[in-house]
Amino acid sequence: MIPGISHRRRFADLNEQEILALAISNEEDDARIYRQYGAQLREDFPSSAKVFDGMALEEDEHRRLLIEAHQRRFGEVIPLIRREHVSGFYARRPIWLVENLGLETIRAEARGMERQAELFYRKAADRSSDAGTRKLLGDLAAAEAGHSETAGRLEAENLGTDARDIEDQDAHRQFVLTWVQPGLAGLMDGSVSTLAPIFATAFATGNTHTTFLVGLAASIGAGISMGFTEAASDDGELSGRGSPVKRGFASGIMTTLGGLGHALPYLITDFWTATIIAFIVVFIELWAIVWIQNRFMQTPFFRATFQVVLGGALVFAAGVLIGGG
């Protein structure tokens, strides 16, 4: 093997038996992915799980037909060739990368899988000069297009308008409870609670480096504290708020970012330049919190503004007064 040179084969170099074997392995992989999606969604979204179960059965049927075609033309032994063995062949994202991203993301991934396969086979058929191979690739493209129609039919059978609306609402609610709510709490804590120590240090010392170190320590310390507190406060089993690990990461990371936002300007050596930029960052942070509360938590805009901006202003003023005194 020569380093830096790919040893995957080009699609154009595959013979008809290998193309058929590739199609068989592709159907097997996609059926397995759809079954995993169904298993992942079954508890919270049973209607959507039925859709993916049905799509997996469709893939099984296409695989059976392809195996029968291989047996008639080439015999019982199917070459071992998979999509990762072929240069330029479409890839599937790892299941763990998709399954935690929400219901609509999984639906979109499934639609993309079918479109991707159909487009690939149609382009491959256009480039083929062999009549038999061209017909085979065209049939596979038609089968993939049929999968999209099947998905639509299965959604109509198992996922009516009411059921889909309910599941979409549940998915949105779960996203808010698991990610937005703890993340928002962290952002509020990190943005507001670090105002006093950072600006008190700034005005007490006039030293940007010292102020940055205090802000960095306060932000990271608050992030670790908030993350562990959120994760330990509720295992999510009874409250339905989801994984404590996810909530802990959301809260901890957003707490840290909230504090770092107005600590980072103090990397600038000029005190007043750094302080003015920090003022602007604080203003943006507080209004971002108001927007998130209004957008995801349905908090009335004026109430959110009063709570966040007034509270932040009071903490900021306290820090300035303490540091200036």
Describe the protein.
With 325 residues, the chain is mostly helical. The protein has 2 domains: 151 residues, Ferritin (Up-down Bundle); 157 residues, no CATH class. It is built from 11 helices and 2 strands. The chain has a two-stranded parallel ribbon. Helix 10 packs antiparallel against helix 11. It is elongated and about 90 Å long. It starts with 8 loop residues before the first strand and ends with a helix.
Largest sheet properties: 2 strands, parallel
Mean pLDDT: 78
**Number of helices in the DSSP assignment:** 11
Q: Please state the CA-atom Rg, rounded to the nearest Å.
A: 28 Å
Number of strands: 2
Give the DSSP E fraction (strand runs of 2 or more residues): under 5%
Fraction in helix: over 70%
- Which strands sit side by side, in order, in the main sheet? 1-2
Order of helices and strands: EHHEHHHHHHHHH
Overall geometric form: elongated
User: How many structural domains does the protein architecture include?
Assistant: 2
Tell me the span between the first and last alpha carbons: 71 Å
Class per helix and strand makeup: mainly alpha
Q: Which consecutive residue ranges, at least 5 long each, have pLDDT under 50?
A: 1-6
Give a quick precis of the structure.
The protein is mainly α. The chain is built from eleven helices and two strands. It folds into two domains: about 10-160, Ferritin, CATH 1.20.1260; about 170-325, no CATH class.
